[in-house]
Amino acid sequence: MTLSPYAPIVGLFALAAFFALFSVASARIAGPRRYNRAKLDAYECGIEPSPQPVGGGRFPIKFYLTAMLFIVFDIEIIFLYPWAVSFDQLGLFGFVEMVMFIGTVFIAYAYVWRRGGLDWD
Amino acid sequence: MTTPAVYLAQDPTLADFGHDPWWISLIKVVAAFVFAVLATLLGVWFERRVVGFMQVRPGPNQVGPFGLLQTLADGLKMAFKEDILPKGADKVVYFFAPTISVICAVTALAVIPFGPMVSMFGHQTPLQVTDVSVAVLVILAASSMGIYGIVLGGWASGSTYPLLGGLRSSAQMISYEVAMGLSIVAVFMTAGTMSTSGIVAAQAGSDRSASLGGFEFFAPGWYAILLLPSFIIYFISAVGETNRAPFDLPEAESELVAGFMTEYSSLKFALFMLAEYVNMVTVSAVATTLFLGGWRAPWPISIWDGANSGWFGLIWFFAKVILLVFVFVWLRGTLPRLRYDQFMRLGWRVLLPINLVWILALAGIRVLQKENSDAVRWGIIGGALLVILLITLAWPDRRKQPPRPLQEQVNARPQGSFPLPPMDLVVPPSPRARRGVAQRQPANVGGGAPDVVDTTSTEEKED
């Protein structure tokens, strides 16, 4: 009996999952349990922890902006991969098409740059 | 492109995978997992020893021969430490976050080629867990999913430092994911495949040798040489992707205590460490496979035909991986940590545009090589020159606007803004400080006009 070439990936995934879950669960059992209030508090350099809003609260908009930029360029990469693999078959046509595509994304990139979307502060 | 038949004789191809009996697959899976764990145990020891050597101190040398068992001892110690679940934590996510990190880190090893075809218990099988036609995508997918472990771990801790560390690391990893993804496009373009074993074979196929005046010259077809910019960008983004120094901002000790793992203890903490080191080994192994010829022997050794056959492949593979891991440690021992905005600027403003331009340039060069018509050639060259000209003209200039004067900023405020306090207030110097200055007249060393501070009048006023 032979396996699909994808099966060992699932196998390694399962083995790693078993190991990780076993470690996390066994740590609960193996270690001592002498809890007190200070140990269970959030760590904040030894002072009384500041109250936390439910769900982690708000954080700077820059992180959302970075995530959106990531999606733009990740999709560009997704289109680049099949093009790169079959580059030799596509020839000149593929090259011209990709110049136009990268050029389009590059305009968006230049726009984001000029508008300060890439400045962190 | 002529390919020497000798080189590709025992190269596994995609057709060689998927024929193993299940128990051989199982052996390979277990071996890959053991490799991941051993790599962590030895990697931590290696890093501490090398950093110790760089800082002129011995490093761990007590537990076992040369301190080799130090990491094992640390791991055992951590297993018997108290497992703390913080009060503010989201319990389920907090519990699963380290497992996500470890699973994703280990899964990526499934498609790394460790060696050529070998005979394992009477079966001819490639020394690689498996290979698929989108193998590099599997690696990228696994390493991207690993981000979830970190960002969820930071978020679920219900604490300030881990939240900031998790956010930072997610922003950092997705930024460098873009650079990393773009840097390997050039490899796919040159190799014409995404299967890892195929890329190793393609690098061997692009070896060149020439005979000149009785001497044999040899140029290895490693993509690290052919595609040097890609290799440099890949390595920089690999350091960013694995959160290693000098890009270890998510766990910057001086700002964030321990970043996303501040609230983790016991084996959960150990799992994050495991994931970090497995990731480091994985990106090194991927760099070896994509850029350094994989398991093939480096040049002077590869003259000997046997060097590339059978289990010898493992030696060259591990030698290259250890070399790259050493570079990781070397970077950590040498470079100070970057500031966050500098770091993001490097990713988005330097690596990304260089990458895109390099891909287009490489594509243009490859098309030029194949194209025969002069009109097309001059068209491409002219187009490239035009693009360079346009970019130079439209390049965002660095000149900064001088800061607007205060009064202008105040006048520009919209109607109905909050009233402003007087803007010319100056904090009066403390009278005690003045007295101190008066008592300690500075010695006039330079020989210029003595800078006497007249304090008598104020003293009298105070009295």
Automatic annotation (TrEMBL), chain A:
Lipid bilayer topology: Multi-pass membrane protein
Subcellular location as annotated: Cell membrane; Membrane
Highest taxon of the lineage: Bacteria
Keywords from the named record: Cell membrane, Membrane, NAD, Quinone, Translocase, Transmembrane, Transmembrane helix, Transport
Listed transmembrane segments: 6-30, 63-84, 90-112
Catalyzed chemical reaction(s): a quinone + NADH + 5 H(+)(in) = a quinol + NAD(+) + 4 H(+)(out)
Name of the protein this chain belongs to: NADH-quinone oxidoreductase subunit A
First-listed, main subcellular location of the protein, grouped into a coarse class: membrane
Function (record text): NDH-1 shuttles electrons from NADH, via FMN and iron-sulfur (Fe-S) centers, to quinones in the respiratory chain. The immediate electron acceptor for the enzyme in this species is believed to be a menaquinone. Couples the redox reaction to proton translocation (for every two electrons transferred, four hydrogen ions are translocated across the cytoplasmic membrane), and thus conserves the redox energy in a proton gradient.
NCBIfam families linked to this entry: PRK07928.1
TrEMBL record, chain B:
Main location group: membrane
Regions crossing the membrane: 22-46, 92-114, 134-157, 178-202, 222-240, 269-291, 311-331, 351-369, 375-395
Annotated catalysed reactions: a quinone + NADH + 5 H(+)(in) = a quinol + NAD(+) + 4 H(+)(out)
Compartment(s) of residence: Cell membrane; Membrane
EC number annotated for this UniProt entry: 7.1.1.-
NAD as UniProt keyword: yes
Pfam families: NADHdh (PF00146)
UniProt keyword terms in alphabetical order: Cell membrane, Membrane, NAD, Quinone, Translocase, Transmembrane, Transmembrane helix, Ubiquinone
InterPro entries listed in its UniProt record: NADH_UbQ_OxRdtase_su1/FPO, NADH_UbQ_OxRdtase_su1_CS
Chain spans, region Disordered: 400-463
Membrane topology recorded in Swiss-Prot or TrEMBL: Multi-pass membrane protein
Annotated PROSITE patterns: COMPLEX1_ND1_1, COMPLEX1_ND1_2
Broadest EC class assigned to this enzyme: translocase
Function text: NDH-1 shuttles electrons from NADH, via FMN and iron-sulfur (Fe-S) centers, to quinones in the respiratory chain. The immediate electron acceptor for the enzyme in this species is believed to be ubiquinone. Couples the redox reaction to proton translocation (for every two electrons transferred, four hydrogen ions are translocated across the cytoplasmic membrane), and thus conserves the redox energy in a proton gradient. This subunit may bind ubiquinone.
Subunit annotation: NDH-1 is composed of 14 different subunits. Subunits NuoA, H, J, K, L, M, N constitute the membrane sector of the complex.
Family named by the database record: Belongs to the complex I subunit 1 family.
Protein name: NADH-quinone oxidoreductase subunit H
